[in-house]
Predict the structure of HlyC/CorC family transporter.
Amino acid sequence: MEHISLSYLYLALGLCLATSAFFSAAETAMMAVNRYKIASKARQGHLAAARTQKLLNQTDKLLSVILIGNTLINTASATLSTLIASKLFAGNDFALGTATLLVAFAILIFSEATPKVLAANYAESFAYAASYPLLILLRIFYPAVWLVNLFVSALIKVLRLKKNQNNQHALSPEELRLLVLESGRYMEKKHHTILLNLFELASITVDDVMTPRHQIESIDLDAPTDEIRKQIFTCHHTRLPVYSSNPDNITGILHIRKILSLKEDEIDQARLSEMMRPPYFIPSSTPLFTQLQNFQENKRRMAVVVDEYGEMQGLVTLEDILEQVVGEFTTNAPAQGKALRQPDGSVLLDGASSLRELNRKLRLAFPVDGPKTLNGLILEHFEDIPDAGTCLVLAGQRIEIVQTQDRSIRVIRLYAQDT
């Protein structure tokens, strides 16, 4: 090669550095590209995305052809640098060593670091651009690629490692939730909130959203007929639980709409017993997502929540579950857990207020892995029923007991954080 001029050697070395940069960028881009975005565009008929997806579906062959090409090019670069140095500095070992180091530095900067950084930042564009030449190279070097993969597969078997079959990259529920959480800027806020709420349905149980039994509006069949009629005409719900004597012993669910066609004198205990539907009981530990499916399968909209001993804990409706996904859209009965803002910035709360609802509406951080209500959380903290006027700090919030009654806390004052 003594007859080859330096200009050709320089040109060949430059081409080798550029080709090595291509392989380095292609490798980084292919590994960093969003596979789900590529799959979506491929379904829409995007040709470059389809080529890229084809390569990603055979990752072992893709990496083999890139590494074969990069190894050959880097070897050629080292050989060319030696030839150039020997022509320029024949007999000078120090100069030859220096030239080798300079070429290694050039490979590191121009063929490795810089293209890889650029490809990581613009992975999709680089992957599309590299997909076509990589497919061609894969066909040209297929025998070499097959041989390399043969040895790689054998080594993996010797090490008793498992290959990822069919290159599946399934996301776990938590990974999918994190993906939705980080993609909030790409969708409407309401849609983003709904998607995040859907992930919570599997971890929230019905006792987190149910109406406690002391807040249930129900009908006593043993009450006087006039009182029952008055209650029906002034009720705040379309479905009412029905009991006899004992409010904890629900015997049926009455749909008020069925009664509207009756005359007032036709409404009596016997007629109500005929029109009510048998109650639907569910355990308090049922996840919301499971209960949503159960409502659909059983064609029910209301269920009586019972504990492990069969004692009634409350009621949960289809609307209660849907509100956990889309937010409130029904009208609650008066005086059910309303937050009353005071002139000094504090808030008066019902002791039966759900901790989960308070966290969501007031952006608080009360723990929800224990008691479900604010009253229960405070009672757990004191292990006793505190007197009115008692103050405490829970989850960084200053709280004052305003009123206690019937062995529970009725009214609580939540002070603003800056007071």
Q: What stands out?
A: The chain has a mean pLDDT of 83. The two ends are 85 Å apart (CA to CA). The longest strand covers residues 397-405.
